[in-house]
């Protein structure tokens, strides 16, 4: 069976800063080597390279600006100002412009690194123009890793939009009302009430990695049987009065044939991902779909962990498609997570015990550690309730002054 460690190993982590660290280390090693070989022209070479690397993107930004101003100023920018919107959108602002200005200043102070001044400017402009040309032709375009990093960092993936839509349009509405729905269901189904553990009172959301969702769980696993529906939840939503939201209760049989009732459903946005991968016009193949499912799971998990309305009311289960040969993989995955919930929330440390002191031991001359005479007081008894912190809302009162009492008897 798929363990929880395997599930965590499938979910991609956010990309870190290792490329920046490697680039800084390579730059430091190269600059140190040039400093050792020709220290007199180090600053001039650095300034010239900085100008080449920054003037190229600036020239490419001018090419982009011509397109935006002539054809998209009204439709994409609604006639807004050139400096405030178009220039930053074309990369003609911010860090690139600042680096170019610093490079030009450094070249002016350090002098030209080439023997002739004209050679320096020729090389500078030729390299910048060729960079703009290759950038426009796509030769110097961003790699797939860079595009993925930008999309993940700016929350621009399809998975991010689907996860937020699933949370804002569904989970945030129904999860706060789930406990009341289950309580109403149990009151009308007394026969199944003893089988509802604490883990069963959460909404179990299944996220299959292949995004292939069956509309009936019993078709995936014959150990899962439809039991009944929870009472409908009606919410006024987007002009619809009393829009109905409903959940289904399933009975999952374990290896001993014992039934466990729980509320289970698939994450419905995965139907969109699967349908997109079947449409050629969407440009969304199977590898991209798998990656988006993992990002959907990670994004939804992050959203729900920070949601006060949904806390402790859900359980996300990522289903790996490598176990399709096991006919009972789905029921085993659900039961494993239900068992984990019970262990986490019930199998805690045993309740604290309190040493019971015999009421007559204080009057006897025996020390407190001495065992009382009655054998019934040998063993400690559990407390009637777990200790809790109690806070008083009353304002603190001053201590009473000592009262002298010298009565003689």
TrEMBL record:
<feature type="region of interest" description="Disordered">
    <location>
        <begin position="353"/>
        <end position="387"/>
    </location>
</feature>
<dbReference type="GO" id="GO:0035438">
    <property type="term" value="F:cyclic-di-GMP binding"/>
</dbReference>
<keyword id="KW-0812">Transmembrane</keyword>
<dbReference type="GO" id="GO:0045087">
    <property type="term" value="P:innate immune response"/>
</dbReference>
<dbReference type="GO" id="GO:0032481">
    <property type="term" value="P:positive regulation of type I interferon production"/>
</dbReference>
<dbReference type="GO" id="GO:0051607">
    <property type="term" value="P:defense response to virus"/>
</dbReference>
<keyword id="KW-0256">Endoplasmic reticulum</keyword>
<dbReference type="GO" id="GO:0000139">
    <property type="term" value="C:Golgi membrane"/>
</dbReference>
<keyword id="KW-0547">Nucleotide-binding</keyword>
<dbReference type="InterPro" id="IPR055432">
    <property type="entry name" value="STING_LBD"/>
</dbReference>
<feature type="domain" description="STING ligand-binding">
    <location>
        <begin position="157"/>
        <end position="342"/>
    </location>
</feature>
<feature type="transmembrane region" description="Helical">
    <location>
        <begin position="43"/>
        <end position="65"/>
    </location>
</feature>
<feature type="domain" description="STING transmembrane">
    <location>
        <begin position="44"/>
        <end position="155"/>
    </location>
</feature>
<dbReference type="GO" id="GO:0061507">
    <property type="term" value="F:2',3'-cyclic GMP-AMP binding"/>
</dbReference>
<dbReference type="GO" id="GO:0033116">
    <property type="term" value="C:endoplasmic reticulum-Golgi intermediate compartment membrane"/>
</dbReference>
<feature type="transmembrane region" description="Helical">
    <location>
        <begin position="121"/>
        <end position="140"/>
    </location>
</feature>
<dbReference type="InterPro" id="IPR047191">
    <property type="entry name" value="STING_C_chordates"/>
</dbReference>
<dbReference type="GO" id="GO:1901224">
    <property type="term" value="P:positive regulation of non-canonical NF-kappaB signal transduction"/>
</dbReference>
<dbReference type="GO" id="GO:0002230">
    <property type="term" value="P:positive regulation of defense response to virus by host"/>
</dbReference>
<comment type="similarity">
    <text>Belongs to the STING family.</text>
</comment>
<keyword id="KW-1133">Transmembrane helix</keyword>
<feature type="transmembrane region" description="Helical">
    <location>
        <begin position="86"/>
        <end position="109"/>
    </location>
</feature>
<dbReference type="GO" id="GO:0061709">
    <property type="term" value="P:reticulophagy"/>
</dbReference>
<dbReference type="GO" id="GO:0048471">
    <property type="term" value="C:perinuclear region of cytoplasm"/>
</dbReference>
<dbReference type="InterPro" id="IPR029158">
    <property type="entry name" value="STING"/>
</dbReference>
<dbReference type="InterPro" id="IPR038623">
    <property type="entry name" value="STING_C_sf"/>
</dbReference>
<feature type="transmembrane region" description="Helical">
    <location>
        <begin position="21"/>
        <end position="37"/>
    </location>
</feature>
<keyword id="KW-0472">Membrane</keyword>
<dbReference type="Pfam" id="PF23417">
    <property type="entry name" value="STING_TM"/>
</dbReference>
<protein>
    <recommendedName>
        <fullName>Stimulator of interferon genes protein</fullName>
    </recommendedName>
</protein>
<dbReference type="InterPro" id="IPR055434">
    <property type="entry name" value="STING_TM"/>
</dbReference>
<dbReference type="GO" id="GO:0016239">
    <property type="term" value="P:positive regulation of macroautophagy"/>
</dbReference>
<dbReference type="GO" id="GO:0002753">
    <property type="term" value="P:cytoplasmic pattern recognition receptor signaling pathway"/>
</dbReference>
<dbReference type="Pfam" id="PF15009">
    <property type="entry name" value="STING_LBD"/>
</dbReference>
<dbReference type="GO" id="GO:0000421">
    <property type="term" value="C:autophagosome membrane"/>
</dbReference>
<dbReference type="GO" id="GO:0005789">
    <property type="term" value="C:endoplasmic reticulum membrane"/>
</dbReference>
<dbReference type="GO" id="GO:0000045">
    <property type="term" value="P:autophagosome assembly"/>
</dbReference>
């Amino acid at each position: 069976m798929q363990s929880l460690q395997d599930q965590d190993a499938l979910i991609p982590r956010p990309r870190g800063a290792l490329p920046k660290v490697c680039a800084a280390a390579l730059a430091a090693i190269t600059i140190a080597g040039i400093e050792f070989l020709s220290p007199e022209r180090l600053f001039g070479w650095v300034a010239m390279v900085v100008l080449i690397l920054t003037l190229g993107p600036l020239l490419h930004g001018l090419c982009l600006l011509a397109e935006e101003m002539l054809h998209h100023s009204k439709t994409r920018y609604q006639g807004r100002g050139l400096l405030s919107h178009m220039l930053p959108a074309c990369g003609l602002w911010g860090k690139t412009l600042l680096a170019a200005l610093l490079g030009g200043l450094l070249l002016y102070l350090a002098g030209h690194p080439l023997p002739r001044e004209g050679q320096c400017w020729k090389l500078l402009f030729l390299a910048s123009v060729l960079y703009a040309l290759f950038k426009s032709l796509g030769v110097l375009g961003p790699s797939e890793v860079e595009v993925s990093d930008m999309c993940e960092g700016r929350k621009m993936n399809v998975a991010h939009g689907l996860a937020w839509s699933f949370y804002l349009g569904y989970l945030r509405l129904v999860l706060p009302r789930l406990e009341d729905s289950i309580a109403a269901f149990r009151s009308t189904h007394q026969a199944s009430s003893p089988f509802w553990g604490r883990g069963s009172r959460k909404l179990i959301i299944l996220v299959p990695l292949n995004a292939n969702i069956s509309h009936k769980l019993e078709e995936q696993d014959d150990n899962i049987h439809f039991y009944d529906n929870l009472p409908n939840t009606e919410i006024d939503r987007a002009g619809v009065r009393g829009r109905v939201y409903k959940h289904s209760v399933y009975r999952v049989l374990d290896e001993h044939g014992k039934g466990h009732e729980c509320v289970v459903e698939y994450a419905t946005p995965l139907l969109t991902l699967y349908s997109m991968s079947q449409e050629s016009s969407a440009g969304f193949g199977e590898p991209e779909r798998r990656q988006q499912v993992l990002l959907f799971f990670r994004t939804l998990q992050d959203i729900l962990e920070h949601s006060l309305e949904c806390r402790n009311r859900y359980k996300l289960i990522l289903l790996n498609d490598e176990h399709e040969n096991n006919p009972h993989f789905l029921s085993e995955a659900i039961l494993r997570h239900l068992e984990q919930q019970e262990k986490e929330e019930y199998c805690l440390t045993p309740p604290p015990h309190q040493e019971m002191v015999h009421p007559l031991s204080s009057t006897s001359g025996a020390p407190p550690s001495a065992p009382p005479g009655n054998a019934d007081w040998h063993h400690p008894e559990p407390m009637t309730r777990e200790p809790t912190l109690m806070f008083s809302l009353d304002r603190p009162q001053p201590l009473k002054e000592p009262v002298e009492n010298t009565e003689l008897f």
